[in-house]
Amino acid sequence: MEPLRLPTRQGWEWIKQGYALFMKAPLLWIVLLFICMIAAVGISSVPVVGQPLMSLLMPAILVGLMAGCRALSQGEELELAHLFRGFKQHTSQLVTLGGISLVGQFLILGLMMVVGGTALVGVLMSSQPETDPGVMLQAIAGAGFAVLLGIVLFSLLIMAMQFAPMLVFFRNVPPLQAMKLSLRAFLYNALPMLLYGITFMMLAILASLPMMLGWLVLLPLVFTTLYASYSDIFPPLKEAAGTPLEGDIIDHDEQEHF
Predict the structure, then answer these.
(1) Rounded distance, CA 235 to CA 105, Å?
(2) Which of 63, 99, 105, 132 could form a disulfide with 86 if both were Cys (CB 3.0 to 4.6 A apart)?
(3) What is the rounded distance in angstroms from the CA atom of residue 238 to the CA atom of residue 212?
(4) To the nearest 5 percent, what fractions of the chain are helix, strand and coil?
(5) How far apart are CA 94 and CA 60, in angstroms?
(6) What pTM did the predictor assign?
C-alpha cells in the first residue's frame, strides 16, 4: 500500500468535499461533536490519569467519526452508533496506537528537558493552565533550542498520527506501519496540506466572528475534511475487474456539482 501524490489544488477540494459531507447531516454532526467534547472534558478532568487516558482513547473516538463519514459517502445515514465503532472493532490496535502516541509525547518532552527546556516543559505539564503570558514567554525564551526541537518532533508525531487510526480501522494495518504510512502520505502531499492548512486558518478567523458561531460548522469540518484527505490519498483497493473492495472514498463526480 502506497499513498498517492496529489496536486496542490486538492487541498481546497478536501474542504469542499468535507463541507458536502457535513451538509448531508448538519444537525447530527453538531450533536455528535458536542457529545465528543463533553466526553473528552470529562475524561481529561480525572486527576492524574485523565489526560493519558484521553490520549489512549483518542484514536478509537476518531475512527467512530470517520466511520460516520464513510457511511455518508456511501449514501447511508449518520448515526449515534458510529461513535462507538472504534470500541467494537480493532479496539486493541487503536488503543495501542494511542499508547505509542502517548509514549512519543513523553519522549519528546524528555528530550526537550535534556536540551534546556525544563522550565517550559514544567509549564506545559502543569495541571493548572498558565494564565500569565509573561511566565510562558519567559519559559519559551529560556528554552532556546528545546523549542525548535519540540516543534519539529511534535510536528512529525502529528503527521504520523494524521491517518494512522483510519489505516488501522479501515485497512487493518498494524499501528507502527500505519504511522509510517501516515507520515509518508503527509510528506508526499506537503503542498496540498499547506494549501489546506492556510485555507482552514482563514476560515477559522472568519468562524470566530461573531461570537464563535461559525465553529458550529467549522469544527465538524475538521473531521469531515480529514476523511476527505484520507480517502483521496489512500483510495479503495480494487479487484481485478476494477470493483472497489471497500467504500471509504468520496464520490468525486458528486462533488463536481457542489
Answers:
(1) 30
(2) 63
(3) 43
(4) 75, 0, 25
(5) 6
(6) 0.86
